[in-house]
Structure formats: C-alpha cells, structure tokens
Amino acid sequence: MKYPIQIFSLGPKIIELHWPKIIAEDVLLEIIALKNNIENKYSPIISSIYHSYQVLSIQLKEIEYASEVTTWLKEFIKRPMSRENLPARWIWTVPVCYAPEIVSSQNQYLQEKNMDLETLIEYHTSKSFLLYFYGFLPGFMYLGGLPETLHIPRKTIPDRKISKGSVAIGGSQTGIYPVDSPGGWYVVGKTPVAIFENGQVKLPFNPGDKVQFASISPQRYTELQEGSVHNWEKTAYCG
C-alpha cells in the first residue's frame, strides 16, 4: 500500500485499520481494494465490514479468528495495491431540478452566498463528485469534490425537517437527503428519483463511483417523479 496504515484491536472481535487523516481518492481506492480482498478471503467469518474516509472496520463473528486475520492484514498491507482488486467504476447521472417553484428554500443559500441561480447551477453541474461512503441516514452519500465557490458553513440552527430528495450543500460537501430528516445543510435543488423506499436503498452506486448532477426542468421533474422505475444513466470511469 502507498500510505502507512495502523492496525488497532477494538475489543476481542473488532479490528480497525487507520489511514492518514486526509480525504483523498487514492486513500479511498486503497480502502476499497483491501476491503474486497478481506471479503474474498474471510467472508464466512466476518459479521460486518464498513469504512469511512480513513478507517476500515472489521467485526468478526468469533474471537478465535482475530489473531489469524490480524497477522494476514499485517503482511498484506506491505504489498503494493493492485488495480485488479478494484471493481468497475462508473459516473452516474442524477437528475436535479433547481427551479425556485420546486425548491422553495433555495433562496436562503443564494442570499448567504450573494450568488445568482445560474452560477449555482453552472458550478454544481460542472463536475462529478466522488462517492466515499454511505452514512448518517440510509442511502445518504458522502460526496467529495465540491467546488470551493459553493462552500458554505452549515446552519447554526438546523432545520427541523428537510424533505427527502433534497439536494443540499453544507461546508465543503454536497449530498442528497434520502428521507425526511432534520438537517443543517442548505437545500439547493431536488431530485425526483427515490433513493430510499420500502426499507431499501434504491441506488446502484458504490463507493469509488462518481455522481454527476444534471439540471432538469420542472416538467421533467414531475414526469420522473411519477415514473415507477428510474433508468440510471452511467458512463465508465477510469480514474
């Protein structure tokens, strides 16, 4: 691996691997590659495995496996990362309506930033955002790469309810609220596509993929909202 990795034991059945405290795509790729190798080798004895920006956490089913897995990890992280250990990666297009008649609270963000709507749309749709992981809420994506022009401090007093499908910006991040939830981010758009429904996350995106927002009209928003199944558009990502 390229980066120094520390291995910690958090109780008899939990092993954590820590990367340096930076948010970077190549750190994410190392985490994904290692996670895939662990699952391929030890899937029957793993209770759960998940990651954040710099941490990979493994919970084992039984105590007696901890020593074997830890020994294997210490040797494996000495090797260079192979791209063969990474899954195919995609850029997914997510339709978003930025029209004021659909996004009534959008003006809060525009006033705070002293920005017009056209500039917001231009910057928010000009690039794709890297999906690091899911968390906070079922289907809530932690996306990286927001242009600095769009950064804004989170609200000091969170809203009591942000509706599902709201595309929002908070700090240096952007994301989509999959369900109705309190939140301190500024809503800038809405997607008509269901993200979490009937107890299941409806997104085909995986960490390491990218998300590209595409501006749509209110009419198209209504059409997609009334559709039963969304056909996701994607292109191969070779980053």
TrEMBL record:
This is Allophanate hydrolase 2 subunit 1. SMART domains: AHS1. InterPro entries: CT_C_D, Cyclophilin-like_dom_sf, PxpB. It comes from the Bacteria. Keywords: ATP-binding, Hydrolase, Nucleotide-binding. Pfam families: CT_C_D (PF02682). One of its GO terms (molecular function) is ATP binding. PANTHER family: 5-OXOPROLINASE SUBUNIT B. Residues 5-203 form the Carboxyltransferase domain.
